[in-house]
Amino acid sequence: MTSFSRSSAPSRLAGVPLALLLLAVAGCGPKDGVKEYNAGQAAYETRSLEKAEKLFEKSLRYAPESVDALVMLARVQCDLGKMTEASETIAKAVELQPDAVDAALLDAEIAFYLNDYARAVKRFTDVAEDASAGAEAQSLGWTGIGIVEMSCEHRDLARIALLRAIRLDRRNPSARYHLGLLYRGDSFGYLDAALEQFEIFVRLGEKADPRAVHAQRTIIPGIKEDITRRAASRKGADRRDSAASAAALSKAAAAMKKGNYKTARVEYEAAYKADVLSYHAALGLAKAWEKIDSSNSGRQRTLDWYKEACSLKPSAISTFLAAGELAARIGQHATAAELYSRAVAANPSDISAIDGLIRALRKTGKGDIANAYQRYREFVTVRKAK
Questions:
Q1: pTM of the full predicted structure?
Q2: Relative to the CA of 16, which of 80, 178, 295, 359 has its CA 20 to 30 Å away?
């Protein structure tokens, strides 16, 4: 199943006086369900789910209004695939304590598994927008929203939710994991950004987490192989001459400094021909053509070289911004949106990238998505000011 939270089990024993706890430990306390609850927790930690289910049920016979026991029973039932029972159990917890964050998050998760996406989003949103819940809980709420939106193939809404989750809690492994999945998929295909998220996820996650093991052993090596394969598949990549490229780049830089842009262009062309994976050669060609030819065809050639440079270095924010600005200036707003979108992937806090993406989306008639990014932009600004 999809993992929505960092830890499924509540860590507290709400409403249990210390004296009763001490009596329970001594074995002479009243039948308040605490002993059974603790045993259920221990069973759950070892994934003895059937045993945990019976223990939580027994705990509730002694303390039928224990919200913690109800939440844990619903969690176990959910993990066992008993969704109808889990839904009924969590409903009791919510009725007893409507503002309980653990109950709200699990209620949303169960709704998601039952394909009730509208309720899932509403319940996750209840937590995500509740400032009193705390940043960590809010982050889990946004993570849940992101997962639901991913399932509905709403790629931008999912991305915005996951970015908000990470901004609230940079150590949220589930948000990192799902953003990595989103960036790796066909809807985005941002391999470098996906790799970054999975590597952070592995560092944050528990070593025993099957997802962390799978990411480390399979996903990350697979992404690295895909990146290498893409580079190797470029025409001429097997005939690279780094030394010749470096020599031409040095001549080109000198020519640019003197304002000899045509000479610089020739040298940048030589540098790129010698090494088709040279970001600096591609970027130099973009800047040289920008100086030489301001005609429509010249600006298109400039844009093409900017795009080539971007593809060679996905972390080059300034290059993406320059390319996006040029694309927008010559009326290629869909291209501008993609360039700005990749810049946001490289740096989700870059206001210029977010603003450029919003403008480009509006120009392409995607006002609703632009509005969603605008709300994220305002959230980024507020968070930066703190």
A1: 0.88
A2: 80
